[in-house]
Structures are given as C-alpha cells and as structure tokens.
Design a protein that fits this description.
The protein is mostly beta strands and 356 residues long. It folds into two domains: 32-118, Immunoglobulins (Immunoglobulin-like), CATH 2.60.40; 125-354, Methylamine Dehydrogenase, Chain H (7 Propeller). The protein is built from one helix and 27 strands. The protein has one helix spanning 3-22, and strands at 32-38, 50-57, 63-70, 73-78, 82-87, 94-104, 109-118, 125-136, 143-149, 152-157, 164-168, 175-180, 187-193, 196-201, 206-211, 217-222, 231-233, 238-241, 246-250, 257-262, 273-279, 282-287, 292-297, 303-308, 325-330, 337-341, 346-354.
Length: 356
C-alpha cells in the first residue's frame, strides 16, 4: 500500500468514525438533588419541627417529580425543582435517613441520601447510691445476666469453657441448679419469659432456650446483630443489646425482630449497653467498663437518669482481682434493686439516691 492510498484510508476511517459518533444519541443525565435538614436548634432535638429543603438540578430534559422518604417511608412528593417539607414535632430520637428520588419525564432518576440525628430533650437526673445489704456471690462467675424469678436468682456467665446458667439462693449464694454451655460458646445475657430461659451468646449469633423448671435445652435461635450482649423482656418480647446504642425487640416465639429502639441522651447516642433489666416501663443498663447504670425510657429510648456506682467495691475490699460492674436485678414483688459484677465476691442490694 503506497503512502497516498494509506492516507486516504485513514481519512475515510476518521470520517466514518466521526459520522457514527455524531449520530449516537446522548445519554440522558441523572438529576442532581441537594438535601438540607435543620430545626430551630443548632442540633435537632426530640419534638422539633424539622425542615427538609430540597433543590433539584436538571441539565437536560424536564423534572417529573421528586419523592422524599424518611427511614424508607414515603412522606411527600413534589413536581417543583425547589421545595421544603416540614416534619412536624418529630418524636423519634437517633439517626435517621432522608432519601430523595428525583425522576425526569424520560424515566431517568437520581437517588440521594442524607442522615440527620435527633437528640433527647431530657437532661438525665444524676443519682448516687446507698448500700442496703450485701450477699455472697460466687467470685468465679463472669457475670453476663441477672434476673429474679419465683424468689430465686438466675445468673448467666461468660467465657469459653465456663459459660453457664445458674439458679441460686440470694441469701446464701448457693447454686441450686445449673446448665453449662458447650465450650465453643461464650455465654451472654439471659432473661425468663413464658416459663423459658433465653440466653444469648457473644459472637456466634445464636441464642439458646431452656425449659425453666428442668433447665433442659428445648430450642435455639439466630439473631441479626453481630454480637449478643445483654437481654431482658417486657412481658411480651425479648429485648436484646449488641454493645451499641440499639435495643432490639424480638418475638420469643418466631424470633423475628419486632422493632429497634435507639438509646440517646441530650448529647448523643449511649453505647456499650451491656446487662439489661426491664421494670415498670424503664430499662436499666450497665454501661460496659464503667460504674454507670443508665435508666432508659422504654418507649422512646431517652436516658432519663444516670446512677453512679463508683466506690461500690470499697465496701468489701476484695482480695482477688475483679472485673467490671455487670448485673442488675429488680425483684418483681419488692422492687428492690440488686447489682453485682464479673468475679465480684458480693452482690449488693442498693437504693439509688438522687443528687441535689
């Protein structure tokens, strides 16, 4: 092929390529959406009106409509390129997600997300404590759960190889009945409902169910959370913690998640929620690695009080090494509160005392 013929071939190829590209239809561009969420406060607080501002930009074509979802629930839609929607007196604390879906008349859509956080409107009350009485507690128990039933104290313990559930006498600390987990399981929180004992495990995402009277294993279940920590019940559902600020309500028959409640105070999420105890529309929780117990409103997840148990071990000056505070039991008849911890040699009856 000579040079002139080669040059002519290149020119022809470029012409065909140019012609082909010029006739290719342009791809329709997705609409772009800007989302703003604000209230009258610098940070959004429970009960605020939340103004959601939407601005849509379309570079080609026309906007058909924009749909707005809050936590996957459709709340409004608009054909305007700019509009505001107000969530009136929003009463749901925690993290929430706004999803905006803008659709053009040619069907092309753009989906955008923005999160916002709602803090509690309550400043928690502060409590200290008074020790009323102390009782023997097995200092080999790595306590994970504590609960009264029919006058007896039930306790679940952790660590591989020693995880178990114990039925004990409060006054003597004597073990009356027990059941041990297989060594591969690390036991966690437990609770009693419908004449059955429910127990979580740490990282295996499985729970076990025992018949209350015999402690015979009758069932097992799997849960969604990556870890199992504390557990209690409200008389209807199991309530479990996973070490975060979430409390998950679970149907004790189907083991399906009923709802999730986020735990917040006036500053933000309260995490590391460990052993749990439900009583009279409140949930009490140990905050892991601290001597703090939080009192949580059962319905809203708001922390209404902090109980500071600093110094509790100075009452006994234990000779052996102990671990963290973990274990709350409220007697259903007397409403007395009992607390203990991992490897604690004593279990205490305490009375919370409000600080002035």
């Amino acid at each position: 092929m000579n040079f002139r013929l080669f040059s002519s071939f290149i020119v022809l190829a470029l012409f065909i390529s140019s012609f082909s590209c010029s006739n290719k239809p342009n791809r329709s561009r997705k609409p772009a959406v800007s989302i703003q969420a604000e209230s009258v406060h610098k940070k959004i607080i429970y009960g605020d009106d939340i103004n959601i501002g939407i601005s849509v930009k379309v570079k080609d074509g026309e906007l058909q409509e924009t749909k707005i979802f809050i936590d996957s629930v459709l709340v409004t839609s608009s054909k305007e390129s700019e509009f505001t929607y107000t969530l009136k007196k929003f009463r749901n604390i925690g993290q929430h997600t706004i999803k905006a879906v803008a659709v053009k008349t040619d069907g092309v859509e753009g989906t955008y997300f923005k999160t916002f956080e709602v803090l509690s409107d309550i400043i928690p009350e502060q409590y200290g404590y008074e020790v009323i009485e102390s009782y023997p507690h097995n200092d080999k128990f790595f306590t994970e759960g504590l609960e009264f039933n029919n006058g007896f104290l039930y306790e679940s313990t952790g660590e591989h190889g020693t995880s178990a559930i114990y039925k004990t006498n409060l006054k003597t600390g004597k073990t009356l009945q027990s059941v041990k987990l297989a060594d591969r399981y690390f036991g966690e929180g437990m609770t009693i409902i419908n004449n059955r004992i429910f127990q979580l495990t740490y990282k295996t995402k499985v729970g076990f169910v025992y018949e209350l009277e015999t402690m015979a294993l009758v069932d097992s279940f799997h849960f969604e959370s990556a870890e199992g920590w504390g557990m209690t019940n409200d008389g209807k559902n199991l309530i479990m913690g996973d070490g975060t600020h979430l409390l998950t309500h679970i149907n004790p028959t189907t083991y399906k998640t009923v709802k999730k409640v986020q735990v917040y105070d006036d500053k933000g999420p309260v995490t590391y929620l460990n052993e749990l105890e439900y009583d009279n529309d409140y949930i009490y929780a140990n905050v892991y690695t601290t001597n703090r117990i939080v009192k949580i409103d059962y319905e809203t997840g708001k922390v209404v009080a902090n109980i500071n148990l600093d110094g509790i071990l100075t009452m006994i000056n234990p000779e052996k090494q102990v671990d963290v505070l973990n274990g709350i039991a409220i007697h259903p008849a007397t409403k007395k509160m009992y607390i203990t911890g991992k490897f604690y040699p004593r279990l205490f009856e305490i009375k919370p005392v409000k600080k002035e």
